């Protein structure tokens, strides 16, 4: 299944279409995943967030020179799925009573 990414760049007035996008977002099953290559605090790194999964601070997934946008988007989705899987595992432990 092809994931549709949308431009999520914060542009100044009149910049849209004139400036290259630096942030993208996609929503899968109601979870918004965001990825950027020019975050204020990480200007030379790829970062991602997914507030719905509790990842509210940007997480670094690689340097800008390492890979293209599509690879960063793919890595962001993999990282988000790993967080989701970890949460599911912990919930199963809680349900089964193994977490006391």
Form type? elongated
Structural class: alpha+beta
* Number of separate strands: 5
Summarize the main sheet.
5 strands, antiparallel
Overall pLDDT score:
90
Number of helices: 1
Low-confidence stretches: none
Count of distinct structural domains: 1
Q: What is the spatial order of strands in the main beta sheet?
A: 1-2-3-4-5
How much helical structure, as a percent, in the residues?
A: 25-40%
How much β-strand is present in the residues?
A: 25-35%
- Which sequence of SSEs, written as H and E, runs from N to C? EEEEEH
Round the Cα radius of gyration to an integer and report it.
Answer: 16 Å
Distance between the termini: 39 Å
Q: What do these coordinates show?
A:
The protein has 100 residues and is α+β, with helices and mostly antiparallel strands. It has one domain (20-96). It has one helix at 69-96; strands spanning 6-7, 23-28, 31-36, 45-50, 55-63. The chain has a five-stranded antiparallel beta sheet with strand order 1-2-3-4-5, with helices on one face. A hairpin with a 4-residue loop joins strand 4 and strand 5. The longest helix is centred in the last third of the chain and has 28 residues, at 69-96. The radius of gyration is 16 Å and the shape is elongated. The mean pLDDT is 90.
Can you summarize this structure?
The chain has one helix and five strands; from the N terminus they run βββββα. With about 100 residues, the protein is of the alpha+beta class. The protein has one domain (about 20-95).
Write the SSE topology.
Elements: E1 6-7, E2 23-28, E3 31-36, E4 45-50, E5 55-63, H1 69-96
Antiparallel strand pairs: 1-2, 2-3, 3-4, 4-5
């Amino acid at each position: 299944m092809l994931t549709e990414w949308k431009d999520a760049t914060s542009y100044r007035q009149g910049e849209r279409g004139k400036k290259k996008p630096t942030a993208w977002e996609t929503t899968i099953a109601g979870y918004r995943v965001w990825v950027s290559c020019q975050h204020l605090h990480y200007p030379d790194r790829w970062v991602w967030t997914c507030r719905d999964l509790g990842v509210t601070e940007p997480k670094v997934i690689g340097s800008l020179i390492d890979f293209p946008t599509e690879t960063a988007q793919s890595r962001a989705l993999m990282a988000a799925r790993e967080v989701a899987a970890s949460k599911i595992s912990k919930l199963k432990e809680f349900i089964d009573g193994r977490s006391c």
